Amino acid sequence: MNREAVVAEALGLLDEVGLDAVSTRRLAKRLNVEQPSLYWYFRTKKDLLAAMAEAAMTPHATAPLPTPDDEWRDWFADNTRSFRRTLLMRRDGARLHAGSTPTGDLDRIRRKMDFLVASGVPERDAQMAMLTASRFTVGSALEEQAEPDPGDGTGLPADVPVIDHESAFEAGLALILNGLAHRMGV
User: Fold this and answer.
1) Around Cβ 154, how many Cβ atoms within 10 Å?
2) Could you tell me the pTM of the whole model?
3) Burial of 14 by CB count in 10 Å (0-12 exposed, 13-18 middle, 19+ buried)?
4) Cα 177 from chain centroid?
5) Are 31 and 1 in contact, with CB atoms under 8 Å apart?
6) What CA–CA distance (Å, rounded) separates 144 from 146?
7) How many other CB atoms sit within 10 Å of the CB of residue 88?
8) pLDDT per residue over 131-181, tens digit each?
């Protein structure tokens, strides 16, 4: 057993039971170890959750960085979509990520910011656009993951409109991009 194996099993547990039911007791049972042995790898549950959040974001954190040939709007949209896809890959992925600090991702964030600035986006606007897109994406994913499954017996009335999350996300992303382009005078 190593740290990566513990995190992988914890993510499997997350997908199985959801964030509220993840516990070190359940994880230890899943790993066939005594609960205190987990403290060798993670001093607190908060440390475990942070490692899980970082590992869950790997698909987005390893996506290609922008190149000078990329068009900023296309790259920004693709980057935001990648973030959303990654959040939705795991049960409660948005909740797991919310509030986590991307400590291992700071160089990538700087490189993304540098790309936007080099593309003509004023630095402060680039910062606010990245922050806004991030929070919008997490919020969208939280809402999508919190929606009850239509077949779960919740008894929702038939006239309750079903939200097309993909279309709503794309519309909000377009508003962010159009607002940024407008501020740039493009």
Assistant:
1) 10
2) 0.89
3) buried
4) 19
5) yes
6) 5
7) 16
8) 999 999 999 999 999 986 655 555 566 666 778 999 999 999 999 999 999
